Amino acid sequence: MNPTYDFSGQVAFVTGASSGMGLATARAFAESGAAVALADINEGSLSTAATQLTDQGHRVLALACNVTDEGQVAAAVDRTVATFGRLDMAYNNAGIQIPPADAAEESAEQFDRVNAINLRGVWAGMKHELRHMRTQGSGAIVNCSSLGGLVGIPGRASYHATKHGVIGLTGSAALEYAPRGIRINAICPGTIDTPMVSDMIAKGELDRAEAKASQPINRLGTAEEIAQAVLWLCSPGASFVIGVALPVDGGYVAR
What we know:
With about 260 residues, this protein is α/β, with parallel strands linked by helices. The chain has one domain: NAD(P)-binding Rossmann-like Domain (Rossmann fold, 3-Layer(aba) Sandwich). The protein has a seven-stranded parallel β-sheet with strand order 3-2-1-4-5-6-7, sandwiched between helices. The chain is globular.
């Protein structure tokens, strides 16, 4: 049984919120009483997700947002605050995976693309969330890294560089803002059963059996398990937790 949280009267902002870990987390925030802003570049799936949550009686705001564009991120955060009056929690989740590549052959275009979304997108989200939270003197931010932020895997240099970068970004900002009443942490998911992972498997970029076997729990994680970790990091139960990179990976990095 998952723990329950009471986020009534609070507001959460989630990027990459139309599917997978982002949607599961947005739903968990909403079911715990928070008003939730869903930001995503995919307007079709974003509209569907927002409609589902609204039909269930939740307070939801759908925001089309490309996290590689800082102006769009700033506007999305500003509109969240204008609509709901405050910002208490944020999960900077938007990210992509890229095909494996020899480190000597990977293109600069691919490197720039994955960095623009996975690292600069997190930086932009955190930057503009902090601008509102520091005025309140309170807030909790969770940035999405990966087990790839804690280890290296052949063929994944650029992707892992972005996820290591998220951890560095998180730790430095956490130290800067802890005295101001804002907690910042990172989460490091293992291989999670999401549409992105399913697409990798379909393209032959990932073998499901090998992925399961690489995690000592011998299965893929679920988006809901990631959501529960994010909610805990945003909750009073984690009030003394600052600047961590929390593995939620079925034991992968403990091997």
